[in-house]
Amino acid sequence: MIDCAPPPLAAAGPRTADLPESIARLRRAMRRAARALDPEGSLSVAQLELLSVLAEHPGARPGELARLLRLAPNTVTTLIQALAPRGLISRSAEASDRRAVAVSLTESGERAVRAWHRTNSEILRRAVAALPASQRRALAEAVPALDALALAIDELADAAE
Questions:
Q1: How far is CA 104 from CA 50, 91, 135, 141, in A?
Q2: pTM above threshold 0.85
Q3: What is the phi/psi pair of residue 16, to 5°?
Q4: Distance, CA of 116 to CA of 123 (rounded, Å)
């Protein structure tokens, strides 16, 4: 029997094996810094991610949002129920099927997404500026590879559906 399993992550390079934990630490650090930079921010990361997906997919149905976010439909429903009364999203029945609901950002929701993106950009700007030039160059050179990695991960998620 031939082993068709992909090579271990370490086979791509000794430092590549550390990539999953590095990404997890980066996500935690970004969340922590965002809370420190915007202590009045009352939206959860899950709520902000839902708003960001809606900015990319206006008028999406809750089921589509669940698929895009890889969340359970009832979790998306809970997020929608929390965001609607705050005036960040609107729900409307679709003309072709009155039972179907389309979800869109309101102007306040769009402002929240822009503010979240500005906060994240500011965190990264400050953090990158504090790094030595060689590490700033390495990060700049890594951006295309990170974009390709994100695309490959998205494709794996889509193939699993």
A1: 11, 7, 40, 36
A2: no
A3: -65, -30
A4: 11
| Cα–Cα distance measured from residue 63 to residue 8, given in angstroms and rounded to the nearest whole number | 35
Number of domains in the chain: 2
Residues 39 and 74 grouped into a single domain: yes
Per-block mean pLDDT, blocks of 10 residues, the chain (161 long): 54 71 92 86 90 95 92 95 96 77 95 93 96 96 94 87 71
For residue 128 the two structure tokens come to 């990158």
Which whole-number Å values give the CA distances from 126 to 41, 95, 110, 142, in the listed order? 19, 47, 24, 18
Do 47 and 88 belong to one domain? yes
Query: Do the beta carbons of residue 30 and residue 120 sit within 8 Å?
Result: yes
